[in-house]
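Title: Comparing notes on inverse folding

I've been comparing how different people in this forum approach sequence design from structure. To keep things fair, I'm posting one structure and asking everyone to reply with a full sequence. Here's the target:
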């Protein structure tokens, strides 16, 4: 499949510098591109490859100033990274057959389920009683959709996703393979004989519009009420979201993060990998938490940047780390200082005795 610079520029509303008839048939990183490749530059540290790359077409920012001759055709846009991502999305749709519709067999669909006419349901999928599947939804093979589940327009569930009873998914949600939505929250009451009695988890999970969830992530249903993932949230693979958690709009969370029950994460948070949060705390809007940090108390100041375990102010934590690395040297210096002071005290004492 080939595309011209003119076709690509029209799609992303870019301005062409060079040959509008230049053709590409694939995409590549700027440092690895060859003739026939489409590439992009968004990070200034890769600009040197602009002058040596074999790419036929390169998408760049409008603000990029050339410092030498180039052979590729450029397409200038306000944001090269976003435009390239948009092209990749459209290309993936074309090659993946994402426009397919229909119900493959064998599948089970409960008689009371309501299914729009233009959905795709892959083989070996189970859809329970009173489920509602809206227009444009794509459910790939091997998925489980429980009773009373609602899935709104143009949502996509990849193979092996499990949605338990009573959960609700908004429009344009994307959930990748192996993820479980609505499993029981971790609720057990200790008994007098040191055993544990399970607390029934009768709530659900609500996922709002434009959320994307990576593979093998688990989002537990609420004990009562709802676990809520607000619109625009992006979750990586292998994340644990416990019962009654709320994640605010457009928050981004990296892999292996664990959020304990009833914690409320604000809007526009950026949370690194392997972050751990205790339960029943609140995280202010705009908070940035570095990887492997541990939060044990509320974050009340918006736009805080946190680091460490327990997490505290980022700049302070870096200073503390520098001091920690120097502790052996500081200890030696302190010992020498103590020895010097002791020697001075002995000399003063001797002089006083002789006086």
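Reply #1:
Here's my take.
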């Amino acid at each position: 499949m080939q595309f011209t610079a003119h076709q690509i520029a029209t799609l992303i509303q870019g301005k062409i510098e060079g040959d509008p008839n230049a053709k590409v048939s694939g995409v590549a990183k700027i440092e690895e591109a060859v003739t026939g490749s489409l590439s992009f530059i968004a990070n200034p540290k890769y600009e040197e490859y602009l002058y040596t790359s074999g790419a036929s077409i390169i998408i760049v920012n409008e603000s990029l100033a050339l410092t030498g001759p180039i052979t590729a055709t450029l397409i200038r846009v306000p944001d090269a990274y976003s435009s390239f991502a948009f092209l990749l999305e459209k290309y993936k749709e074309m090659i993946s057959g994402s426009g397919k519709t229909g119900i493959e067999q064998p599948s089970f669909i409960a008689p009371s389920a309501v299914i729009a006419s233009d959905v795709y349901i892959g083989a070996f999928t189970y859809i329970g009683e009173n489920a509602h599947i809206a227009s444009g939804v794509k459910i790939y093979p091997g998925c489980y959709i429980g009773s009373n589940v609602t899935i709104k327009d143009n949502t996509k569930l990849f193979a092996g996703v499990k949605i338990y009873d009573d959960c609700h998914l908004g429009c344009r949600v994307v959930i990748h393979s192996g993820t479980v939505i609505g499993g029981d929250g971790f609720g057990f009451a200790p008994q007098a004989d040191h055993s544990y009695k399970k607390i029934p988890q009768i709530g659900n999970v609500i996922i709002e519009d434009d959320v994307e969830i990576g593979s093998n992530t688990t989002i537990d249903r609420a004990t009562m009420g709802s676990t809520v993932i607000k619109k625009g949230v992006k979750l990586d693979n292998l994340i644990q979201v416990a019962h009654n958690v709320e994640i605010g709009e457009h928050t981004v969370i990296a892999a292996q993060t664990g959020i304990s029950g009833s914690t409320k994460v604000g809007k526009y948070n950026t949370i690194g990998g392997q972050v751990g949060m205790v339960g029943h705390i609140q995280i202010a809007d705009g908070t940035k938490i570095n990887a492997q940090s541990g939060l044990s108390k509320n974050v009340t100041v918006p736009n805080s940047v946190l680091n460490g375990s327990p997490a505290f102010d980022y700049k302070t934590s870096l200073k503390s780390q520098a001091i920690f690395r120097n502790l052996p040297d500081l200890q030696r210096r302190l010992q020498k200082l103590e020895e010097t002071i002791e020697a001075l005290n002995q000399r003063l004492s001797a002089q006083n005795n002789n006086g």
